Amino acid sequence: MPESAPVKILIRTPNWLGDMVMSSGFVRAVLEAFPESQVDLIVKSGFEKIPLPHRGQIIPFDPKKETAGNFGKTLRAENYDYFYVLPPSFSAAWMAHKSKIPHRIGYSGEFRSFLLSLAKKPEATPRSQHLLKEYLNLLAPGLSTEKYPPRLEITHEWAEKQLGSLEISLPESFFVFTPGAIFGPAKQWPLEHFRTLATLLHNVFGDPILILGTEADVKSGAEISLGLDFVQNYCGQTSLSELLAILAKAKLLVGNDSGSMHLMSALQRPQIAIFGSTSPDWTAPINPNATVLSRNLSCSPCFSRTCRFAHYDCLKQIEPELVLEETLKLLTDKNQTEA
Fold first, then answer.
1. How confident is the model at residue 339 (pLDDT cuts 50, 70, 90)?
2. Mean pLDDT confidence for 113-118
3. Greater pLDDT, 186 or 102
4. Which of 120, 187, 193, 245 is the most exposed place for a label (fewest CB within 10 A)?
5. 188, 180 in Cβ contact below 8 A?
6. What is the pTM of this model?
7. Nearest partner of 334 among 303, 304, 279, 290, judged by Cα
8. In the beta sheet, which residues pair with residue 10?
9. How confident is the model at residue 337 (pLDDT cuts 50, 70, 90)?
């Protein structure tokens, strides 16, 4: 950690939605450590409307329109003192290098060391500790994810503004399913399980289920909702900020290890997080209202996009009845706490 407070700090946030949301815990730690400093964020273009904590400006970067090096050059006139580089890629460090910001801090690897003024070596083996903890270690050792969990600065007014132009009429009470995961099918709970769970939840609670996701998830949503009038498929019909506002109103989210899982975690709302090929140790939601389900098979976590054995047992063996049971526990505990 810097001995004296820098005047201006820049943080390059990760490119994946979930990783970016997790990095909000790191941003909160920086804001607390330097209460008088300006703290600006660079985010992947498309994420700039997400209400991340900051004290300055959120700067979108679109690699399709500008190279990392050229973008870095545009930062020189801003006279930043520190540049924290959270993505592990060479291009992220190259951007920092070309910015000529005096203090450029990130992890070594990918031949990045000569581009950074401080290239730290990871304290643990890859994927063995939580990703947010890895980010926090760039600021100072000993910072905990419990003290600096991911948070998004959501207000009631912000959420209502996002929903103002939404063509969807939201029910008073509802569940949300997010069956997608960009990484691949080894992170996606079977659609037939989602479909069975929808019926189980509706039989117990009577609430409708909204299926949310991108245009790539439309077909999955249609398969889950087919013939079920209490399930609405809204995949591809919401912006990212609208998705976030809907999650803020949902009774509970059931989803894979994905960006939407981390959005719900940052809202501290009830959720069931289903893990297949990835590891909860690395990317679990840091949320007291979350239940993580993982089978911990001998072949997992494999971190593969597809199952090398073609059975996907790590996902199939998480039965819908178990998810219902955990949902009942989670919502009962939440109601007792609020009573």
1. very low
2. 97
3. 102
4. 120
5. yes
6. 0.94
7. 290
8. 40, 83
9. low
pLDDT of residue 239: 94
Helix (H) or strand (E) holding 275: none
Are 44 and 68 in contact, with CB atoms under 8 Å apart? Answer: no
Query: Which region, left, alpha or beta, applies to residue 62 given φ > 0 means left and ψ of -120 to 50 means alpha?
Result: beta
Residue whose structure tokens are 């569940």: 175
Partner residues linked to 272 by β-bridges:
254, 291
Please list, residue by residue across 160-180, b when 16 or more beta carbons sit within 10 angstroms of its beta carbon and e when fewer do.
eebbeeeeeebeeebbbbbbb
Distance in angstroms (rounded) separating the CA atoms of residues 30 and 2: 11
How buried is 254 (Cβ within 10 angstroms: 0-12 exposed, 13-18 middle, 19+ buried)? buried
Count of C-beta atoms within a 10 Å radius of residue 7? 13
For 228, phi and psi rounded to 5 degrees? -110, 105
Q: For position 185, what pLDDT does the model report?
A: 85
Confidence category of residue 3, pLDDT binned at 50, 70, 90 = low
Say what the pLDDT of residue 27 is: 98
Give CATH 3.40.50.2000 domain extents, the chain. Answer: 8-139, 167-338
Q: Tens digit of pLDDT for each residue in 211-265?
A: 999 999 999 999 999 999 999 999 999 999 999 999 999 999 999 999 999 999 9
Q: Which amino acid is at 85?
A: V
Q: Which helix (H) or strand (E) holds 189?
A: none
Q: Which residue has the tokens 């979108």?
A: 60
CA distance 252 to 210: 11
CATH of 167-338 among 3.40.640.10, 2.170.190.11, 3.40.50.2000, 3.40.50.720: 3.40.50.2000
Is the domain covering 8-139 a CATH 3.40.50.2000 domain? yes
The answer to whether residues 73 and 91 touch, using CB atoms and an 8 Å cutoff, is: no
Place of tokens 């190259």: 94
